[in-house]
Model the fold of this input.
Amino acid sequence: MDDRRVRFETLALAHLDAAYNLARWLSRSPADADDIVQEAMLRAWRAFGNVRTETIKPWLLAIVRNCCRDHLGRRAQWQPLDDAQAQALPSDAPSPEDEAAWRAERARLDGMLGRLPAEFREVLVLREMEDMSYREIAEVTGAPIGTVMSRLARARTLLKEHWNSGGGHGLP
Amino acid sequence: MDCPRQVQTSAFIDGELDEHASREAERHIAGCADCQAFVAAAADVSERLRAPGVRVAAPAVLRSAVQRGLAVEPAAGGAGKRRRRWAPGGFVWGAFSGIGASAMAAGVALLLLAPPSAASFANAITDAHVHALMDGRVMQVVSTSHHTVKPWFAGRTPFSPPVADFAAQGFALAGGRVDTVQGERTAVIAYRHGAHEIDLYVWPAADRAQPAGGDRLGYHLLAWRSGDLAFAAVSDVAPDELKRFAGLVRSERE
Done:
C-alpha cells in the first residue's frame, strides 16, 4: 500500500466538505464547485510534501481558493453578482423538514452573500462556517491578519445592512 | 455610524484579542451604542451562517470522482516515484481475506449483513483514530512504562484498561488518552510499530455492541472481546501485523 497516497487521501478527504463548501460559496454554482474541488485536490496531491497534519486544512483551502480564482477569473465572475444574477442562483438539493421555507431562506442568503465582494464573502465563510482562527484565515487568503480582522468586521456590517435593506428575495 | 473601534469589537467577538485587549474591548462595548449594535448584528449574521444546511456538504458523487481522479494521478512530486495502482477507495468494509474481486464482494456482503450500528461504531472508532492523528493529540499521557500509563486512566475512565508494553515484539507502548466515541468515554492505549501508530480502544463490553472489523480509507480495524472488556485495534499497519498485535494483547489478558 502506498502510504503517502493513503495519508493524503485520508487527510484531504476529511476536509472535502470544507473544500466543497468554500468553492460552492465562492463560485455560487454547484457545478463549478465540483470542477474546482476536483482540480484543487489534484493540485494538492501534486504539491503534497511535508505538510504538517495540523495545518492541512488551511493549506488545502488556500489551494481551493486559488483554484476558484483561476476558474472564475477566466470567466470574469470573481466580481459580486448583480441582483438579477443573485436571484437566479441554483439551489442545492437536500432539504430538511420544511423544504420551501429552507429554500427561500437559503436563496435569500445566497443572494445576500453573493452580492458581497469575494474578499468579504470568503472571510465570513471561513470564520462562521469553518470556525477558523484569524491566523488560519490569513493563511487561506494570503492576507495579513490585520486585513482579515478588518475585512471580517466590514463583512458583518455589510451583510447585516443588505439583510435589513430587504434585498435578495424580499422576504420579511 | 461606525465606531472606529468596531474592528476590535469584531475581533473580541471572535475571541482573537489577548487578555488585556479583551478587557479593554469589553469596557468599551459597555459604553458604546454603535458597538453594541454591531455585536447584535454580528450575532445575527453568525446565527444565519451557522444555521443547519447553510454549510454545504460535498455530494457523494464528488467524493468518488475525487478518489477516481487521484487513482489515475501519478505519485506526488519528489518522494513517490513509483506509480502504483490504487485500490478502490471509499467505504469498503471487508474481512482480512486478501485482495481482489472476491474479497471486494465479501466486503460488500458484510456491509449489507452487519447491523448498521456495528459499521457506524467501527466508523466512529476509525474516525476518532484519524482525527487524533490529524490533530496531533495522539497521547495525553506520554510514557513507555505501563506503570505510568495504567494509573493515568484511574479516574478518567470507569474501568481499568489492561496496559502492557510489547516493545520486544515490535509494538512499543507510547502512551494513552481518552477519546469520546459516539458520546462514550473510551480508553485509548497508543502503540508504535515502526513509523505507524496503533491505537487500542478499550471499553466495557456490556456498554455497547461489537464494532464491525474491516478496512476503511487505508485503515484497518480489528475488534474482539476478552472477559468483560471489548477491544478494537486501529492502524494503517499491514493487516497481518495488526493481527499479530491483537494476538499479543489477547494472550496478555489470558
